[in-house]
Every structure is written in structure tokens, then in C-alpha cells.
Design brief:
Elements (H helix, E strand, L loop, with lengths): L1 H29 L2 H9 L6 H11 L15 H4 L2 H6 L16 H36 L4 H15 L2 H15 L15 H31 L2 H8 L4 H24 L8 H7 L4 H10 L3 H29 L7
């Protein structure tokens, strides 16, 4: 097991280098260092000297990928890509183009993101599994048919509709919850209830329909018919056998999502004014702050790879047939 984990982590190094190279290339295909300097200086008639000073101060005065003025290893090391990427592998995110400490911003903003993502994730998983099991238990009946229709309808609606409808009903009409904003400590609870409710409701359609498919696939297998032939009730078969075996494909998606909870929701945080990592990334894209964009993409890549490793490990806990050599 330990050798497998080490091997997977070593595989992640070239993947992370490739992701950073792709992000770097795409960003600088759209924005040149001169364009970034003009945006951050905020002056319409900025001088050439001011642009060059801004680039020199932030390390953007070097070639992008290859330095023709140098020889040997310095041809690659004395470039924007190398000097802005290598330190990421020791989780040194450096400073944003406006001088802020990116690492400190991430540590501060991860908590509002987790405050929304964790309850949304836990409550959503429980509701999706429960609703999907209900549909599977009443398969072929009107409960199953209308449940599937409701699931398809809910998953076909954009999350923007849920956000606007939730703000209209809960904030504008009923005046129960604030429409947006955030506060510290326990005072933040009133600002988190509405985003959590919307996050859970918007995910019920896709999640329950997917889990229902897993349950129905297990129900039609031979071991279920054998269990029923031995006299077990439908509820016993569903909870003791079907649920456990269906957890293997469910874990594929669930465990991989857990690390991404730290990244926050781009849309949800922006609409509700939550100072999390999602809104942090959106603001960086709007401000053309490459340092923050690069750091967030790298962090997301690490968390996603970590989630895949967790998924493989979790297989051995729910399915004894799975063994890692």
C-alpha cells in the first residue's frame, strides 16, 4: 500500500508540471506582461518606464519559456515560467501581482469556502442516497416514475435559477435570510443557510438519478435473487446487500470531490458575496493576476490528485475483492 501511494505521488509530478505549463501558455496567449502592467497600474497613459519598472519588480521582465541570452540550464531557469513555478512544488505560492501574500489569503479564505461546502456536501450526499434508495425500493411504480421525472427536471435547471429563486423567496418576499454578505464567527450562520440550501437542492436531481442507477444495477444481480430466495425482506436486501455493494461506484465520485471542497464554489460565492476561494479566483481572473490564477490551478490539481489516491484506498475498505499489489 505504501509503495503504491508513493508511486502515485511520483506520477503526479509530471502531471503537475504539464498542468502548470498549459495554464501558463493559455494565460500569456491572452495577456502579455505589458497588458498586465497596464491593468495593475490603472493609468490610461502609463509611461514605458513605469511598465518596465512594474515588470522588473515582479519578475515579468524575463523571457516566458526560453532565454536565448543565457546558456546551459540558465536558458530554462532564468525565465518567467521556471521562476514562478518551481516554488509551487514546496507550497510557496509567493505574492500576488498587487503585493498580497497568496498563502495567507488562501488560509483565510478557505474557511468560508469550507463553511458552505462541507454542510452542502454532507447533507446533499445523505439526501441523494436516501431519495435514490426510495426510488429503487418503489421501482416500476408511480413513485419511481415521478421521482425520475422530478430528478431530470431538477438537473436540467441551471444553478442560476435556484440562486435567483432562493434570493427572491427567502430574502425579498419572506425576509428570513440576508440576500448576500458574510460575517465572522457564529454571526456568519445567517449568511450560510441560504447558499447551503440552494447547493443541496440544486444537486438532488443529478445525484439521486445517478445513485438510483447504481442501486438498480445491483438489484438485478444474482446475489440479490439468492438473498430473497432465502427469505430476506426487500428492506433487508436493500440495506444489508445492495447499499454496501453500490457504495463502490458511489465512492468514485464522492471521495474525489472531498479535496475540491477547499476550492469553494465560483458561482455561489460570487452571487452571495462570500469571501472564499471561489470568489478569490474569480477576482484574480478579472484583475488578470496571473500569480493567483497559477496558485489556485496548482492547488486544485494537487487536491484532485489527492482525491483520486483517496478513492483507490477507500475501495479496499468497502470491497474486499479489491487488492492493491
Amino acid at each position: 500500500m505504501i509503495a503504491y501511494i508513493i508511486r502515485r505521488l511520483l506520477y503526479a509530478i509530471p502531471i503537475l508540471i504539464g498542468i502548470n505549463l498549459l495554464t501558463f501558455t493559455l494565460f500569456f496567449m491572452v495577456n502579455s506582461p505589458d497588458d498586465m502592467a497596464r491593468v495593475h497600474l490603472g493609468v490610461k497613459r502609463v509611461t514605458t518606464e513605469a511598465i518596465e519598472a512594474w515588470k522588473t519588480d515582479r519578475g515579468y521582465d524575463k523571457p516566458l519559456l526560453y532565454n536565448y541570452k543565457e546558456s546551459g540550464i540558465k536558458s530554462f531557469s532564468n525565465t518567467i515560467f521556471f521562476q514562478h513555478t518551481v516554488r509551487l512544488f514546496v507550497l510557496d505560492f509567493g505574492r500576488a501581482d498587487d503585493g498580497r501574500d497568496i498563502g495567507r489569503d488562501i488560509r483565510q479564505r478557505m474557511w468560508p469556502s469550507l463553511a458552505i461546502a462541507v454542510p452542502t456536501f454532507i447533507v446533499g450526499i445523505l439526501l441523494n442516497i436516501t431519495f435514490a434508495m426510495l426510488l429503487a425500493f418503489f421501482r416500476g411504480t408511480y413513485v419511481d416514475v415521478w421521482g425520475v421525472v422530478l430528478s431530470v427536471a431538477m438537473m436540467s435547471i441551471s444553478i442560476m435559477f435556484y440562486i435567483i429563486l432562493g434570493q427572491l423567496i427567502m430574502s425579498k418576499l419572506w425576509h428570513l435570510l440576508p440576500i448576500s454578505g458574510y460575517d465572522s464567527g457564529l454571526r456568519a450562520l445567517k449568511f450560510l443557510i441560504l447558499p447551503v440550501i440552494i447547493g443541496v437542492v440544486s444537486g438532488i436531481g443529478a445525484g439521486s438519478r445517478l445513485y438510483r442507477t447504481f442501486y438498480l444495477e445491483e438489484i438485478n444481480k444474482d446475489y440479490v435473487r439468492t438473498a430473497r430466495a432465502k427469505g430476506l425482506s426487500s428492506l433487508q436486501v436493500l440495506f444489508k446487500h445492495v447499499l454496501r455493494n453500490a457504495m463502490v461506484p458511489i465512492l468514485t465520485g464522492v471521495v474525489a470531490i472531498i479535496p475540491l471542497l477547499f476550492m469553494g464554489s465560483l458561482v455561489m460565492e460570487s452571487f452571495f458575496g462570500i469571501p472564499g476561494l471561489g470568489s478569490y479566483t474569480i477576482d484574480a481572473i478579472n484583475q488578470q493576476d496571473f500569480a493567483i490564477v497559477r496558485a489556485m490551478v496548482f492547488l486544485g490539481s494537487i487536491l484532485y490528485i489527492f482525491g483520486l489516491v483517496l478513492t483507490d484506498i477507500s475501495y479496499t475498505l468497502v470491497d474486499p475483492r479489491v487488492r492493491l499489489e
